Amino acid sequence: MSTSLPPLKTTILDRITSEQICPRSRWFFRSVECVVWTAWLLSVLVGGVAVAVTLYVVRLRQYDLYEVTHGNFWYALAEALPYLWLITLVFMVALAVYNLRHTARGYRYPLWAVLSSSMLGSAVLGGGLHLLNVGFMVDRSFGEYMPTYPSQMKRDEAMWQKPGEGRLIGRLYLPAEASSTIVQFIDMQEVVWAVETKDLTADDLGLIATAAKVRLMGVQPSSTPALFYACGAFPWHMDAPATPPELAATRQGYEERMRRYANDRVRMGQVVAERGTEAFTSSSPCMELPALKRM
Amino acid sequence: MSASAIPSLPPSDEEVVVRTLADSACYGELVERYEAKLTRYIRRLGVHRLEDQQDVLQDIFLKAYRNLNSFDTNLSFSSWIYRIAHNEAISWYRKTVVRPEGNLVADSDEILQFVQSKEVAPDVAFDREINAAEVTEALAQIDEKYRVVLILRFFEHKEYDEISDILKIPVGSVGTLIHRGKKQLASVLNPHAIRI
């Protein structure tokens, strides 16, 4: 025996009436759509910030003095890359794609179009933010307010605060006395060093005299007392975004200096060959810099 | 001949939607229009028992009614309600842990048309003496994503852009899925019964 079911139309209309079912408001759906688009916009925006910081870091060229700081260029480059921001960028692009695909018509577009539009959005926005120095400001602010955030400033300070490896960062504490070439230099850990500056150029000395933060390349003959033999002084580019010509000038100055030491070394070799080993007593420690051998 | 002799066209689905938003009783018109189509569709997706079909259909129409304001009039109402039907049918058989094997309805004429179709893979030609039961069984064995597009394309006779709207995938992907689905179907089909 079969039971005849009521027409579906009747059942549906009855349920609509008895359960007081109403269509959800149009505003509800518009709000949902707005949330999805806002989420997309936010992910593109954060992706843009990630691009801006990445561009700032890449443009900083922390690998510029890689012979001083690292064994080789690739190691220096690998360490300089802002992995945190690159991961953030990838995550944000993925999030942007997800959000865009979940808009009312997002499914109609092929994945490559959605992906490339989100990437392009982040790239263009990031480029614009970089021009406004947002990358620099974000990196510095994060470094100031988040103790665990490895800002470029912190990384650079840590990299150059290694006197045992021939790198020292700080500023002039006391200038040299009239008859001396030794200045008092205070590093990032508030240690005052006696720095021998006789091998430095006039430009180097001028840079140190400004009392701005500088990076010193050299040799540490002793840690107690704190003595450092300076072979080069380089500006610290973290207080304000450096321009490409400034960065290029730093690299150029470094190369010229290293060429000079290399030539001195060759000449010293010739002198030793002519006069004997007593010539070593007057040689500069700068001729034995590890960076010189890496060039 | 007077103009009044010309019969007026029934209102479009989209017009009925607008009327329904003002008067819920108008919704019955849409239910009547789509009841048979959606019953057939969800049956093909694996909702086989009559009682289950009734339950799923009620869920579909009530869900559609609740979300009527989300219907984009730039889409067709048919695609929109098929999308809801698709989602409800899929979630029904996932909830009830029922795999759709063997539940596909064998419709000899449609299956014959389907297997003879050369629109995607012209290099694949099926024999005229095809066994409909074998195709039905093979359809049940292929991946769900392929089975669904093949059903929509060859059994529901939907266009690519409609399938795109129903499944919420790009139109290009519809073509790809149909092509791959037919290849997978061909690989599953018994080579003794069907000559490819």
Structure, explained:
The complex is a heterodimer of chains A (295) and B (196). Chain A is an alpha+beta fold. Helices cover 56% and strands 13% of the residues of chain A. Chain A contains 11 helices and 5 strands; from the N terminus they run ααααααααβββαββαα. Chain A has a 5-stranded mixed β-barrel with strand order 1-2-3-5-4. In chain A, a hairpin with a 4-residue loop joins β4 (214-222) and β5. The model of chain A has no long low-confidence stretch (mean pLDDT 85). Chain B folds into 2 domains: 8-95, Orthogonal Bundle (Rna Polymerase Sigma Factor, Chain: A), CATH 1.10.1740; 108-188, Orthogonal Bundle (Arc Repressor Mutant, subunit A). The relative contact order of chain B is 0.11. In chain B, α4 (77-95) crosses α8 (160-167) and α5 (108-116) crosses α6. The longest helix of chain B is centred in the middle third of the chain and has 19 residues, at 77-95. Chain B is built from 9 helices and no strands. With 196 residues, chain B is mainly α. Chain A binds chain B through residues 5, 8-13, 15-17, 21-26, 28-29, 104-105, 107-111, and chain B through 21, 24-25, 27-28, 31-32, 35, 54, 57-58, 61-62, 65-70, 72, 164, 168-173.
What number is the mean pLDDT of chain B? 80
What general form of chain B does the structure show? globular
Q: Strand order across the biggest sheet of chain A?
A: 1-2-3-5-4
Output the CATH class name of the largest domain in chain A.
Mainly Beta
Superfamily (CATH H level) name of the largest domain in chain B: RNA polymerase sigma factor, region 2, helix turn helix motif
Please write the string of helix (H) and strand (E) elements of chain A. HHHHHHHHEEEHEEHH
Instruction: Specify the biggest β-sheet of chain B.
Output: none
Largest interface, by Cβ-Cβ below 8 angstroms: which chains and how many residues each?
Answer: A-B, 25 and 27 residues
Number of helices of chain B: 9
**Treating each run of at least 4 consecutive H or I residues as one helix, how many helices of chain A?**
11
Output the helix-strand order of chain B: HHHHHHHHH
The main pleated sheet of chain A reads as: 5 strands, mixed, barrel
- Structural class, judged by helices and strands of chain B? mainly alpha
Overall tally of structural domains of chain A: 2
**What's the total count of β strands of chain A?**
5
